[in-house]
Write a structure and sequence with these properties.
Chain B: Belongs to the ABC transporter superfamily. Spermidine/putrescine importer (TC 3.A.1.11.1) family. The structure holds 2 protein chains of 2 kinds. By secondary structure, chain A is mainly alpha-helical. Chain A is built from 11 helices and no strands. Chain A has a domain at about 55-230: MetI-like fold. Chain B is of the alpha+beta class. Chain B folds into 2 domains: about 15-250, P-loop containing nucleotide triphosphate hydrolases (Rossmann fold); about 255-375, OB fold (Dihydrolipoamide Acetyltransferase, E2P) (Beta Barrel), CATH 2.40.50.140. Chain B contains 8 helices and 20 strands. In chain B, strands 6-7-8-3-9-10 form a 6-stranded mixed β-sheet, with helices on both faces. A 5-stranded antiparallel β-sheet of chain B has the order 13-12-11-14-20, with no helix packed on it. Chain B has a 5-stranded antiparallel β-sheet with strand order 15-19-16-17-18, with no helix packed on it. Chain B starts with about 20 loop residues before the first strand and ends with a strand. Chains A and B meet through α7, α8 and α11 of A and β6, α2 and α4 of B.
Chain lengths: ~270, ~375
């Protein structure tokens, strides 16, 4: 492997990372700004974090977002897993192609269209816009992502595990809960996390389908930014970034550890 | 005593007209769409028998096993186990257990939990489960691995866990799908004998699917040779080898020389066959053949003698030239091109370390065999 750093390599990596992370770094830096002016550095301070926790509007929005995220991710995970099971297990039913197309369409559907059509639906059935409608909309949005993640795991799932369980006397229901579900659980968990993250940062669909009293954090931030960016918003975003980053880092460390442990185990087994 | 019987001398229920069949395939057909995997097949397996289904991949042998386990239902015909029709009985209610080719060990459970899984489904009490699991671990010599997960085991150990798990419930019948397929040669040979011991000790009926003829010959009481969803022959390993009933079986099991020809003359005891290119051979009468009928004489390489001079008293002696020699240590295999162009394979045990007058490439040579050394096939 080539380990020397050529000037070209250094330049391209700096440029690439700057492109990706400079805006975020700027945001984080200015969240610790003493000055009220967003673009003028006035010294280090954490006062915006303190005032953030006293901003009732933002705190309410955070609470709404968390609830919408957890509920919609959970329901989407159940539905997405069921869809994935059907798509991988019953490969020959009528309309399978149509069904799989329909499950995955929201992946590529412009969010504006999804949001608008959901709005029309809610208006048509007379559902008052609010917490329930945002949650429903997010379930629609995230279900297909869960289905994709779980399906890719199911494709490599060894069906003879289920056959072995049934052969040993487990009914199909017991087989599902004792064998299939535990084996595909990592995929279901990452599906849930993906759904939660998507729900967390969705602005477009939430804007269409939300109503009074159910303002999510992205909506709140967006509306406040229109009145001018305050350092408080910077602080809120920094916390959001920290939460997501910590989640991602923990997940990848856990994954890496499992992988290493597994390799060690397998080497040990080979040695006998 | 002349015999082409079983190795276990006192065990031959298939010869006993009063023996009750244990597993019966009754005109079973299985179709997958347009493809016929099993074609109107009938088969009888007896209690405590070690029965092998032998065939190339895709011949339908695994489908037979899966129908017995309940993962597939026959399209037509029926399968009886101990007199009971199995149709409609789901896999989890059948008194048979299967050992899977991939072993199908539950990756999230320890060895112990894997073995206990079937017993738990049965509703056995915890202390009894513990006792049975310990017994099974002892049986497959994996006591110190009880707490390991499958990925922490070697291939041979996984195989033994799979075996322990499938016999833990004491099934009436144990089905084994290519049980030794994933093991290396040395381990495979050891495990063959372990399986045979296990079957004897537990007194179970074993049905094993394999594509490895040597494996089937070593382990089974009887072998069914399957081709294109049909049974070609069901017989003991010795019968299959020494008295195949068709060209397919003769070819499939071991090496064989085939002499094609027509019945030239038939006396009270022998049949003279005229080969396509003029060579004449005389063989014992076995099957009814009319003069002029097309037949094949099949003979195994080790039943053919090879010599540099014409044998004096041989009934059948054909002359040719040594084309190829393969020295295998325990024996030597000669390929001789007869003067009529046919290739003959003859093998000789190297019983002595030093041979006088050894044959070499392109030497003139005679091959000879007794009239009863092979079989006459009509199909």
């Amino acid at each position: 492997m080539n380990t020397t750093w050529s000037r070209f390599n250094v330049t391209s990596i700096v440029l690439g990372f700057a492109f990706l992370y400079l805006p975020i770094v700027l945001l984080i830096v200015f969240s610790f700004n003493e000055s009220k002016l967003v673009t003028v550095w006035g010294g280090f301070s954490t006062k915006w974090y303190v005032s953030l926790f006293h901003n009732q509007g933002l705190m309410d929005a955070t609470w709404v977002t968390a609830r919408v995220g957890v509920i919609s991710a959970t329901v989407a995970t159940v539905l997405g897993t069921l869809a994935a099971l059907t798509l991988t297990r019953y490969t020959r039913f009528r309309g399978r192609v149509l069904f799989s197309g329909m499950v995955f369409a929201p992946l590529v559907m412009p969010e504006v269209i999804t949001g608008l059509s959901l709005l029309l639906l809610f208006v048509a059935v007379g559902l008052d816009r609010g917490f329930l409608t945002v949650t429903l909309a997010h379930i629609t949005l995230t279900m297909c992502f869960v289905a994709v993640v779980v399906q890719s795991r199911l494709i490599s799932f060894d069906r003879s595990l289920e056959e072995a369980a049934m052969d040993l006397g487990a009914t199909p229901v017991k087989t599902f809960f004792q064998i299939t579900l535990p084996v595909i659980m990592p995929a279901i968990v990452s599906g849930w996390m993906l759904a939660f993250t998507l729900s967390l940062d969705d602005l477009v669909i939430a804007s269409f389908t939300s109503g009074p009293g159910a303002t999510t954090l992205p909506m709140k931030i967006y509306s406040q930014v229109r009145l001018g960016v305050t350092p408080e918003i910077n602080a809120a975003c920094t916390i959001l970034i920290a939460v997501v980053a910590v989640g991602v880092i923990i997940a990848s460390i856990a994954n890496k550890r499992r992988e290493v442990q597994r390799q060690l185990d397998e080497q040990a087994a080979q040695r006998g | 005593m002349k015999s082409l019987g079983s190795i276990r001398r006192d065990f031959a229920p298939w010869n006993d007209p009063n023996a009750k069949p244990y597993i019966q395939f009754d005109n079973v057909t299985k179709k997958f769409g347009d493809f016929t995997a099993v074609n109107n097949l009938s088969l009888t397996i007896f209690e405590r028998e070690f029965f092998a289904l032998l065939g190339a991949s895709g011949c339908g042998k695994s489908t037979l096993l899966r129908m017995l386990a309940g993962f597939e239902e026959p399209t037509s015909g029926r399968i009886l186990l101990d007199g009971q029709d199995l149709r409609g009985i789901p896999p989890y209610r059948r008194p048979v257990n299967m050992m899977f080719q991939s072993y199908a060990l539950f990756p999230h459970m320890t060895v112990e939990k894997n073995i206990a899984f079937g017993l738990k489904q049965e509703g056995m009490s915890a202390p009894d489960i513990e006792k049975r699991v310990a017994e099974m671990l002892r049986l497959v010599k994996l006591e110190q691995f009880a707490k390991r997960k499958p990925h922490q085991l070697s291939g041979g150990q996984r195989q033994r866990v799979a075996l322990a798990r499938s016999v833990a419930k004491r099934p009436k019948v144990l089905l084994l799908d290519e049980p030794l397929g994933a093991l290396d040669k040395k381990l495979r040979e050891e495990t063959q004998f372990e399986l045979m011991d296990l079957q004897q000790n537990l007194g179970l009926t074993f049905v094993v699917v394999t594509h490895d003829q040597e494996e089937a010959m070593t382990m089974a009481d009887r072998i069914a040779i399957i081709d294109k969803g049909e049974v070609m022959q069901v017989a003991t390993p010795a019968e299959v080898y020494e008295a195949p009933t068709s060209r397919f079986v003769a070819h499939f099991v071991g090496n064989v020389n085939m002499f094609e020809g027509k019945v030239a003359e038939r006396t009270a005891k022998t049949t003279r066959i005229a080969g396509a290119s003029g060579a004449q051979i005389v063989v014992d009468n076995a099957v009814d053949t009319a003069p002029g009928a097309d037949i094949v004489f099949a003979i195994r390489p080790e039943k053919i003698k090879i010599s540099s001079k014409k044998p004096v008293d041989a009934v059948n002696a054909l002359e040719g030239e040594v084309y190829d020699i393969a020295y295998l240590g325990d024996m030597t295999v000669y390929h001789v091109r007869l003067d009529d162009g046919q290739m003959v394979r003859a093998s000789t045990m190297n019983a002595a370390r030093i041979t006088e007058d050894p044959l070499s490439w392109n030497d003139r040579a005679w091959v000879s065999f007794r009239p009863d050394a092979g079989v006459v096939l009509t199909r």
